[in-house]
Amino acid sequence: MQQAQKAVTGTLLAIGLLAAQASAAERCPMKNQQINESNALILLGGTGRGEIRDFSAGTIGKDVNLQSHYSGSFDRCGQLEEAAFKYQKTERNVRLEMANHTLRSGEGWVTQYDIAVSMFRDNQVRLLTRKRGTLHFTTGKHGNITAATDTFLINEERGFTNSTYRYDDQWRLVESTARGTDALNNEQLRYRYSPQGWLLASDSDKGGISYRYDDKGVEQSSTRHNRSAVSESSSLESCQSWDEHGNCTLSETLETEMFATMRLTRNISTAYQYHYWDDAPTADQ
After folding, report:
1. Do 13 and 137 belong to one domain?
2. Structural domain tally of the chain?
3. Same domain, 21 and 37
4. Which residues span the domain enclosing 25?
5. How many Å is the maximal CA-CA distance in the chain?
6. Which CATH number belongs to the domain containing residue 139 in this structure?
7. Which of 180, 218, 242, 254 gives 20 to 30 Å between its CA and that of 49?
């Protein structure tokens, strides 16, 4: 009897899964994986493999007081529904805190963020600078992000940044340009791809990131470099393990930052977890 019940349950689960997939196909007549990936690159700073339902990532510094948490979810059509990020680093009496929250809104997305830099001195915390604002991302008729407007306060002084995005004929993001009152935000990023369509690098005058893959297109590592008025930094993030879809589940990062009078190194570990829309249901569910 138990075997018969399990067989019936398994059949019903399979029928339900097929029905859900058919319903999803009807709801997503204009689904375009490349547009979804380009939008994720803008909104999240990266993409993943497979039909991801949700993800989470946690980072901790091994030799520096650093913690961060990142999470997000996608609908059945592959569009980002919500994402949240929190980051805190304390080093040499200076604390950097960042947080943002992104939500799907109508035909675009809205991100609210807060960035603060504080200093510890004489057992007191002194706020050095704070930036908080709201980003509105708008999409075109094909669903790709075409522009973003950022309105913010920096130490209670109002400002703005307007961004535009350019694509190739395959809907791959090839350029983003940001211009406004915050000079630190003004930047033109250029994106390069391999013949297979894998993102190879994004570069600007302020720095960039490059990616290395195996022969199946599974990302192995990424290298970042950044330049600012006070320092230059570089980092190498190397994946240590992957899930069945080829997404990294554990990475180790070595970061180096050079100042005029000192050199800092940081060792950082990040764990990732992904759930997918095609994950097989169990008989107990």
Report:
1. no
2. 2
3. no
4. 1-30
5. 76
6. 2.40.160
7. 254
Q: Which two tokens stand for residue 196?
A: 């297979």
Query: Are 165 and 243 members of one domain?
Result: yes
Tokens 């929190």 map to which residue?
A: 86
The tokens describing 236, both together, are 């190498």
Do 264 and 165 lie in a common domain? yes
Helix (H) or strand (E) run with residue 182 in it: none
Query: Do 146 and 12 fall into the same domain?
Result: no
User: Residue 203 burial by CB count (10 A; 0-12/13-18/19+): exposed, middle or buried?
Assistant: middle
Q: Mind listing the pLDDT tens digit of every residue in the chain (285 residues)?
A: 434 444 433 433 333 433 344 444 446 755 689 999 999 999 999 999 999 999 999 999 999 999 999 999 999 999 999 999 999 999 999 999 999 999 999 989 999 999 999 999 888 899 999 999 999 999 999 999 999 999 999 999 999 999 999 999 999 999 999 999 999 999 999 999 999 999 999 999 999 999 999 999 999 999 999 999 899 999 999 999 999 999 999 999 999 999 999 999 999 999 999 999 988 665 544
283 within some domain: no
